[in-house]
C-alpha cells in the first residue's frame, strides 16, 4: 500500500511539474487547493485527484469543479502541427488551398460544408495571421482563432 501511494505521488509530481498552471483538472484535490499557485499545490491536487479517483463522478454529476458540457481541446495537437508546418501552412494559406490547410481543418474539426469558407477566410486574413517574418506558431494559432471568431459561421470552431 505504501509503495502504491509513493508511486501515485511520484506520477502526480511528474505530471504536475510538466503541466501548465491550472492544469490539474477537476476533482476533490483541485477543490481543496483551489487558488493556490506553485508546484506543491498542483502536485497535491493532481495526486489527490488520482488517488481518490473522483473525476468521473465529478464530470457525471457536475460537481467538484467539473463541467458536464466540457470540451476536449485539441490545442497540443494544433500547436505541434502548426510549429512543424509553418512554411507549408503559410504557402497554402496564401493561395487558399492545399494539403496543410486540409490537415489543419481536420485538427480543428472543420466540417466538410464549412471548409471552403474556412480556406477563404484564412486566405483573406493571411497578412494579419503571418504579420511578420518572425511569427511564431502561437501567433499563427492566435491569428487563425481571431479569423474564426470574426466569422459568424466559423466562430464555433475557434479554440
Can you describe what's shown?
The protein is an all-alpha fold. The chain folds into two domains: 2-61, no CATH class; 75-157, no CATH class. It is built from ten helices and no strands. It has helices at residues 2-18, 28-32, 39-52, 55-61, 75-84, 86-95, 99-108, 115-124, 126-129, 137-149. Helix 1 crosses helix 3 (39-52), helix 6 (86-95) crosses helix 7 (99-108) and helix 6 crosses helix 8 (115-124). The N and C termini lie far apart (42 Å). Mean pLDDT is 80; it is low at 5-22.
Number of strands: 0
Derived from helix and strand composition plus strand pairing, the structural class reads mainly alpha
Assembly context of the chains? single chain
Helical content stands at: 55-70%
> What radius of gyration results from the CA coordinates?
20 Å
Shape: elongated
What's the domain count?
2
The proportion of strand residues reads: under 5%
- List SSEs in N-to-C order: HHHHHHHHHH
Nearest-integer average pLDDT: 80
Contiguous uncertain segments of 5+ residues = 5-22
- The number of helical runs is 10
- Please give the largest β-sheet: none
Between the first and last Cα atoms, what is the distance in angstroms? 42 Å
Amino acid at each position: 500500500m505504501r509503495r502504491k501511494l509513493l508511486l501515485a505521488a511520484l506520477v502526480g509530481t511528474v505530471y504536475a511539474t510538466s503541466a501548465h498552471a491550472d492544469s490539474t483538472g477537476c476533482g476533490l484535490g483541485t477543490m481543496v487547493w483551489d487558488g493556490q499557485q506553485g508546484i506543491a499545490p498542483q502536485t497535491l491536487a493532481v495526486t489527490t485527484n488520482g488517488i481518490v479517483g473522483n473525476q468521473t463522478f465529478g464530470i457525471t454529476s457536475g460537481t467538484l469543479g467539473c463541467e458536464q458540457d466540457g470540451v476536449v481541446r485539441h490545442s497540443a495537437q494544433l500547436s505541434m502541427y502548426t510549429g512543424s508546418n509553418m512554411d507549408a501552412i503559410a504557402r497554402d494559406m496564401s493561395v487558399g488551398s492545399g494539403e496543410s490547410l486540409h490537415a489543419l481543418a481536420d485538427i480543428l474539426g472543420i466540417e466538410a460544408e464549412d471548409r471552403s469558407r474556412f480556406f477563404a477566410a484564412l486566405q483573406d486574413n493571411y497578412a494579419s495571421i503571418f504579420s511578420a517574418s518572425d511569427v511564431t506558431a502561437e501567433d499563427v494559432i492566435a491569428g487563425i482563432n481571431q479569423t474564426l471568431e470574426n466569422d459568424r459561421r466559423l466562430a464555433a470552431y475557434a479554440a
